[in-house]
Amino acid sequence: MTSQLSVGVLMFIAARDVENRVIEAMRRAGVDDITVAQGRVAARIGPHGTRLSDLAEQAQVTKQTATALVDRLEAAGYVERVPDPRDGRARLVRFTAKGEAMLPVARAEEQQVEREWEQHLGARRMRDLRESLTLLREITDPYQEPADV
Questions:
Q1: What are phi and psi of 8, to 5 degrees?
Q2: What whole-number distance in Å separates Cα of residue 86 and Cα of residue 109?
Q3: CATH 1.20.1560.10 given to domain 8-144
Q4: Disulfide-capable partner of 94 in 18, 39, 49, 127 (CB 3.0 to 4.6 Å)?
Q5: pLDDT tens per residue, the chain (149 residues)?
Q6: Residue 86, exposed/middle/buried by CB under 10 A (0-12, 13-18, 19+)?
Q7: What is the SS3 assignment for 27-53?
Q8: What is the SS3 assignment for 145?
Q9: How many CA atoms lie within 13 A of 62 on its CB side?
Q10: DSSP string, 75-96
Q11: Could you tell me how far CA 50 lies from the centroid of its own chain?
């Protein structure tokens, strides 16, 4: 009997490949001081900043681990901690200008991956994949902002 990989494992394999390719693209662009783990946390920073506890939850790491990863990103100049305008006691992690400058490299590599996938799958299957994943997000993404819909 042939065993099939679960859809979850298949999605993980594809997502891991994208993460690795984005990190490699940043290295080629001269950003060689960000690890995959740091990238996972940084990828969850919202446009106006995100609380450290939310980053930890979304990246599924402990708050201590998220703190250590953000500390390293901050020491390298990619992020900063600023007061949360909605709660003076809380702080947000947000990108600095240096951090914002690396985002186009990541986005460009993500677009390259999508072009390659579309070439491999065909336009219809790629469109179906995007549509299916978007629909699944409705029931799987507890961090989805209303504007993301």
A1: -60, -45
A2: 34
A3: no
A4: 49
A5: 558 999 999 999 999 999 999 999 999 999 999 999 999 999 999 999 999 999 999 999 999 999 999 999 999 999 999 999 988 888 999 999 999 999 999 999 999 999 999 999 999 999 999 999 999 999 998 877 655 54
A6: exposed
A7: HHCCCCCCCHHHHHHHCCCCCCCEEHH
A8: coil
A9: 3
A10: HTTSEEEEEETTEEEEEEEEE-
A11: 13
Pick from 89, 84, 51: nearest CA to 67: 51
Give the Cα separation of 102 and 32 in Å (integer).
11
Token pair 């995007």 is found at: 130
